[in-house]
Amino acid sequence: MRSEWASPIVPVMKANGQARICGDYKVTLNPTLKPDRYPLPKTEDLFVKIAHGEKFTKLDCKQAYFQIPLAEESRNLTVINTHKGLYQVNRVPFGITPASAIFQRVIEELVGNLPYTGAFQDDIVVTGKNDQHHLRNLDIVLPKTQGKRPSLREKKNAASCRTPSST
């Protein structure tokens, strides 16, 4: 592969102790990008959306950014340079300036307008006034995520808690 762009790699440690290999775009691609001005939600606005809930379920999106395809014309810009050669990134990579805004837009298009539901980056919190209301709200949210991108990570979802978790 040949490319006019090739960013070095940087290992990032994940919470589970594994390393994630990312492109280090801070000196290559990021200085040339215009920031995406899509706003991240304010914490207090999210709390208002879920304030009247008694039960909470936190849903975690699986490999959030990597589920969003990168536009074909942008793929040659996100090439990473490894000891095994150049690799083109085909999904939104961690480390590019607009990644957070891109993902927030996608997640809000999916569930952002639903009552008793708050979404911040790769986490979705669903709540309800009681068990029945909570389950009804989950019945609305879950089908919106099934078979769609981003999909949910089953192992990290916390179901029916009395208080929302920050992990």
TrEMBL record:
Q: Where is this region: Disordered?
A: 146-167
What InterPro entries has UniProt attached to this entry?
Answer: DNA/RNA_pol_sf (IPR043502), Retrovirus_Pol_polyprotein (IPR050951), Rev_trsase/Diguanyl_cyclase (IPR043128), RT_dom (IPR000477)
Q: Which SUPFAM superfamilies match?
A: DNA/RNA polymerases
Pfam families according to UniProt: RVT_1 (PF00078)
Q: Where is each Reverse transcriptase domain found?
A: 24-157
User: What's a single GO BP term from this record?
Assistant: DNA biosynthetic process
Q: What is this protein called?
A: Putative gypsy nogag
Question: Organism source for this protein?
Answer: Ixodes ricinus
